[in-house]
Amino acid sequence: MRVVARRRGCAYAVTEALLDVILLSGGQGLKKSIDVNDEDHPVAGQLIGSEPDTMAPAARILHRYGYDVVDLNFACPVKKIKNKARGGHMLKDVGRAISVLKAVRDALPPGVPTTLSLRRSFDDSPESTDQFYQIVEAAWAHDYSAVRVHGRTVEQKYLGRAAWPALREVKRRYAERTILGSGDVFTAADAVRMLRETGVDVVWIARGAIGNPWIFRHAAAILAGAGSSSIPPPTIAEQREALAEHFSLAMQIHGEQLAGRRMRKMGIKYSRFHPQSSEVKAGFIAVKTLRDWTMVLDRWYAADGPGIWPAADAADEVNDAEPAEARGCEAAV
User: Fold this and answer.
1) Sign of the Cα pseudo-torsion (321, 324, 325, 328, in order)
2) For 236-308, which CATH class?
3) N vs C: which end of the chain shows fewer Cβ within 10 Å?
4) What is the pLDDT of residues 96-149, one digit of tens each?
């Protein structure tokens, strides 16, 4: 997904959350999955865990595998993470959070950038907001290069709206620091609006990039002065090219059988840009093999033509159909 997006304007990418103890357990499958493609730079390896003694050596593994940045995930709200006091649940354990920040920073060479991802607070209480700022201050004190803030609380999970004013307040407090903002960025227009309304330095596009690798170049065009309504959606030929690339790369990493299962959800997301989106979506749902994938492309993407802009809320339709606990943590681009 990252490489497909790179080829269409993504300047910086971040992995999904990688569990420290899994990295430490090794194995050929894991090593293959964290190998960085030559096109995929600069890239951050996003690390999640709860113990300084395991987070630090896991960070060294990511550095050894060529990741340009190590990002610590203190944002994931998923319940299975809560049971291990990881992710966003670090916001309730400031001492542990600071210990992890320090251990990871000390484990890496001084020139390796480290960043921190977290939600704006655990809940809406003043105490939780104070804890958030304690952790952010500790990140600066330990020479972290940037902080990414998601506009929802941990308790919100993926429900409700992200509070962009909270992002604006973080950037106001740390005007000279690099702040990344995330939450409710599903279109290129959303990305540009977040930049302008909150003042954050970088917009982190997560679920909005799934099945829409063109979002980056579209956002760049709007920033350059193009009206969002004047930018055409990707053509059928452009969509087919991205779909073929994506499946090919997935097979290189996972093999045909696993790629077929994993790519169904991607195909559903891509189908939103096709004029016959409902029929194309049904075709992707049935995919199991490369042959199935190719049959969908040959049936629905053989002839070029204009694509369509999906409704803004269609970007999250797959996620809305399943509980937050089943989703895992966000993959960010």
Assistant:
1) positive
2) mainly alpha
3) N
4) 999 999 999 999 999 999 999 999 999 999 999 999 999 999 999 999 999 999
